[in-house]
Design goal:
Length: about 325
């Protein structure tokens, strides 16, 4: 059967075909660099009217503990260009059912995969406003990078920085043991997660914005606190779509007639979502629909996994 590989992302959120491919082929860094660049571009449009700026730094690697703690660096740097025109008082945190104290109560001393973003204020030598990390499998392991990351994260939280973690990797465990482990298919687990940790009032009572989502769910819009009462509502999904389409990832590496690599590493519910998405795309393509002309992803059926797999096998055999 002829490959079906439109330019537009056919999933409503994370593309399961590509994320499986990138993890299996060790090419995650290619997506990470492109995605973070587009995050910076879209953030800049929102930050400039508030008097902040966003920049890409030279290094996208997690540096050793001694260097990272003295002069932390990240993929994206956000600076306050008007530090003296606004109050330096940090806004009171929004009440939350989940706090940093609860997260660290369950913390496990295990290594996790990371990449990075940061948000700074008060010029080149000033203190950061917030810090953003994109998890990366290249930093998986028990080496110095993993140890450095954990120490750096805790230090920045202790200093009162807002900390954002983006987890678009379903094959690795969560960063905090508070959450169910999707990689082991634990009940109630989800493949993707965005955390915003806010220690500005105090570490123990700091609220946590935690949004977990599944295959074919939209990537959420999140509120990122800055200085004082300033904040932005940032659409991480918009940056994802921009990176996906402009880089032609779908054309190069996603074929919707085939299953993602290592399909078994998704939960059964997400496997069913993937197969229902494949069926919708294949059916539309066979009917002559130009998938790149669609304004949004196709609606899908809700077939059980086994029935969806049988129908897919029938379509691929025809």
């Amino acid at each position: 059967m002829k490959p079906i590989n439109p330019i537009k992302n056919q999933y409503r959120g994370i593309n399961a075909h590509l994320h499986s491919y990138w993890q299996a082929s060790d090419h995650w860094h290619r997506f990470r660099n492109v995605y973070m660049t587009d995050v910076m571009k879209l953030m800049q449009a929102q930050l400039e009217p508030l008097g902040y700026s966003a920049e890409i730094e030279e290094s996208v690697q997690i540096r050793r503990l001694d260097a990272a703690l003295r002069s932390p660096r990240s993929d994206i740097l956000i600076k306050d260009t008007l530090p003296y025109s606004r109050s330096s008082t940090r806004a009171a945190p929004t009440p939350s059912a989940l706090t940093l104290d609860q997260l660290y109560e369950y913390e496990i001393d295990d290594e996790h995969p990371y990449a990075a973003i940061a948000i700074y204020a008060d010029g080149d030598e000033g203190e950061p406003v917030a810090w953003v990390e994109l998890l990366s499998p290249s930093n998986k392991g028990r080496g110095e990078d993993a140890q450095s990351y954990r120490a750096k994260r805790r230090l920045l939280l202790d200093q009162g920085l807002v900390f954002v973690e983006l987890n678009f990797l379903h094959e690795q465990p969560p960063t905090f043991a508070y959450f169910s482990d999707y990689s082991r298919h634990e009940p109630g687990s989800h493949p993707y997660r965005i955390l915003i940790l806010d220690p500005r009032s105090s570490f123990a009572a700091g609220p946590v914005q935690a949004v977990e989502f599944d295959v074919d769910d939209p990537i959420p819009v999140m509120t990122i606190p800055l200085n004082g009462d300033d904040h932005i509502r940032f659409d991480f999904g918009a940056a994802y779509r921009k990176a996906f389409e402009e880089s032609r990832y779908g054309r190069r590496s996603a074929d919707y007639t085939r299953l993602p690599q290592h399909l078994e590493r998704y939960s059964r519910d997400d496997q069913a979502r993937i197969l229902n998405r494949i069926l919708a795309v294949m059916t539309a393509a066979q009917q002559g629909v130009n998938l790149d002309d669609l304004g949004e992803p196709l609606p899908v059926e809700d077939l059980p996994l086994d029935e969806a797999r049988e129908r897919w096998q029938s379509l691929t055999a025809s």
